[in-house]
## 1
Amino acid sequence: MKKGLFESHILILVTLGLTAFGLVMVYSATSAPAALGGGDPGFYLKRQGIYAVLGIALLIAASRTDFRALRYLAPILVLTSAFLCLAVLAVGEQVNGARRWLMVGPFTFQPSELAKISLAIWVAAYLARRQAPRSLSELMKPIGVTVGAFCALIIVEPDLGTVIALVLVVGTILVVSGTPLKVLAAGGSIISAVAIAAIWVTPYR
């Protein structure tokens, strides 16, 4: 078996394993409260199972598509994500004081999740055509500014966890692209200072 094919199979197996584990955890956490409340103990398991099946179908479809074609969709994905992240602040469903979800019929959609994927594709496509940033100023324009704008929108929802995940994804791409350690350290120090400030001003974090 070719090395790349073997790694793809491992990635798929890990994804399926995590999905199955997640379904078990959803049922474990929700079945008893639902039963005590007179509801269907398997309601959340069934709903999450539908999402899992849809996700696996998308995984199969994506595996049959040349990923290089995504570079042409990168600008559209980023603009769409930015619009939805703005929209959720205005018309999003408010839950426990946070506006993170858009209602689409019976389903809820979190624009910040699309933003993570969109930015990953856009940053990867951008760095595939250019040399990795060699200074903090090169890192800031346009990658730092774009990522920072999305982080600002998402943290206002508020959702610090997604911001951290987004920064880690982009940081990983920068590492793989060959960005010097000193540039990553400079960018990381700025991000860390902002994250600490966000945690400090909001006690529950």
Note: The first strand starts at residue 93 and ends at 95.
## 2
Amino acid sequence: LAGPVGAQSLNFSSYPRTIPDSLHSITAGPDNAVWFSTGGGVLGRVSLSGDISESRPFGSNKALGGLATGSDGALWVAERQGADRIGRSTIAGFGTEFVVPTQDASLEELTAGPDGALWFTENGANQIGRITTAGVITEFAIPTPSSAPLGITAGPDGAVWFTEYTANKIGRITTAGVVSEFPVPTSFSGLRDIVTGSDGALWFTEYEGNKIGRISATGVISEFPVLTDNSQPTSIAAGPDGALWFTETGSHKIGRITTGGVVSEFAAPAFVQPTDLTIGPDGAIWFTDSFNKIG
């Protein structure tokens, strides 16, 4: 979708899929296209004109989660629901898998780190994982028990930042594995996604708190209410306009917040429910839709 800064509406496009499935993650790929993962093991590619191609490089019995482009030009994905593997796929669809040492780790999200490795959250194991492009895996414990780490991103300070859904904290881990944690003021806020903004701070979604949060690299937190009640802000990305864009799965909207904290919202068309989102190679916002479409 696209629209000028300050616009009252956005231009939505939808590209339906033919395979019944649950969409999970979406990211800009290394080949001027957008890629997505699904709960049915599909790794999909969408051209900028909306042509979709799909494959299952790791088999049909894999639930794929967080997805990111690695420093090696491949697609890397966390395999969820007991698979305990990180998958790597070339753009041609050749897949390789690497077993995570901890069993029942419940892998969730994954990001390209500042050190050329991939970093991922182990929601069930209370750990942050790191995998090199050669497949070497290291795991780091989070100090707070049962913190349920979820979203993860490379920070502006050479560290990796993540959300702790159950502990209600924002975590920071250095590339050497040193973890710091910062409590979020709103109780039971349901922290989900996190991204680095154009202002050098980290911005995150509060799914239960109905807010967008901001944390400076030194740990100072601010929170901004979303305009619509029970909007369930979920995924967030830094836009080419310097603002942050996010999905509201509860209200079927796309939200925008400036680095000054000004929020605006854009209603999606009927039967469109944006979930995960990313900025595509074309500068537009691309998202997964719970009605089995790419928008």
Note: Residues 57 and 94 are 6 Å apart (CA to CA).
## 3
Amino acid sequence: MSRILVTGSEGLIGAALCRKLEKKYKIVHYDLKLKKNILNKKQFKKNLVGCVGVIHLAGESRVPRGFKYPVRTIKNNVVGTGNILGSIKEIDPKIWCIYGSSREVYGEKKKKFKETDLLNPINVYATTKYASELLMRNFCRNYGIETFVVRFSNVYGGLNDHKDRVIPKFMIQAMNNRNITVDGGKQVFDFVHVDEATDGVVKLVHQIISKKIKTKTFLLVTGKGTNIMELAKKIIKITKSNSKIEIKKSRDYDVNYFIGDPSGSKKNLGWSAKISLESGLRLYFKQMKKIKL
């Protein structure tokens, strides 16, 4: 049974991904919640021994924290990624690595982005993701390590998500009949359910293991954009809430528009998103009702 190390294994994407991969592979969980830190290279190398691959999802995952703690975010995301790639180089360059990147690397244009489009990060978090993508590319070119990049877009649907991210925040506010606070209100995003985002990664892992993959970068998106005000209204309707929408000032460092083109992942992975936002929100609401908010 192939042994795969997953960093950020206890997070929103990591936990869901590990549950799926454990059906076929031996998974090494690596997460700060388990007192395992990607900045501790000695510790990481010890856990890496015997692995055929790494799925790197750890590090700072949120734009506001990147804005508030820029140096810490650079250290966690860029130095952490360097530690992982350096460890692979030293232990066994035949170990492949998938990096969990973000749609934030594109910056903002009112178009459907493809994998091959120019990257233009506009905040610290996005810049660290871009820098890590470059490290992946250069460790592949310079040291022969097989690396891949998966760009996620507004993944939602897990109970272990950060409560101040947009969908959990709106859902909690609606379920408690509090005002839904919207920053700006003109944003348009491509929301992907965590079950489908992780299906894409699983398909990539299977193809790497079977030596069938040639493409290096994948964009896991629905191809459909949803306005943030429309999202708030959908959640109010689904939860049958008495909440009102309260518009606040937008944040200067945010990307306010992103829709991705899913055709590359459909062609190269055989992956496409099928869960509509409405259905995904209903599934999430059903989960949320089972816990104390």
Note: The two ends are 40 Å apart (CA to CA).
## 4
Amino acid sequence: LGWAGGACRAAPVMEPIGSFTLAPASAHGWREASVAELEGWMAAAAQAVGGLRDYRATLESSERIEEELFPRRVMTVWVLHEPLHVAIVTHAPESERGQKVWYDGEERELVAETPGFLGALVGRVSLDPEGDLAMQNRRHPITDVGLARMVEQMRAALEPVLALSTPPRIRSGEARLAERDVRLVEVLVPAIEAHETALVLRFAFQRESGLVTYYGQAELTSEGPAVLEEYLYRDITPNLGLDEDDFAPGETPGESGESAD
């Protein structure tokens, strides 16, 4: 994990480039959807995330950097929206298990802690959130973690496409994801100037909460979809009453000293 300063950098998994894995296309009742419907779902997701002051969740991610598909990460994340504070404990892959990071958005300070003998020697380290060490083996900085940023990234990815004179192909279907009923939406992004290949974007909107809890992006190649990135939030516990003091380095937010491992 780059956030730990590269001390325990994970080796890439040399697997064939493949399709989505965190939210496979297991939806039923697929139908064509309109731009207006998609914009409505996006607006509802923005409203839903606006009701979250803070939360704890499990985040799973799968990322490809160039031609290297890295091991799936599983993390517990705590997020305070305003001002942005983030804490993360990594559980998988095994090479990153036990790594911890804390981010203070006011100070723009990232503090990382690596477990084991090396961690005992180095201790906690401060990193530039967007520096080379913090970004090793990652597509996004820690400032992109969280449900609010997922909505912003979804909008940023879709707005240029929805503004095209020819609407993109959109389809939606019902699915069960992370033990929740969701609306799974796919958008086909044509090969416009910003992209070398066509893309397929996949989102999951929780039926009950309206939150967008999954985002995936894949290139459409002659051999099929080649996943670029996937992010899934599950087991979301909202509004724990966290404050900035809960995100001090060494603290486990809202756990009263209990380990998140």
Note: The two ends are 16 Å apart (CA to CA).
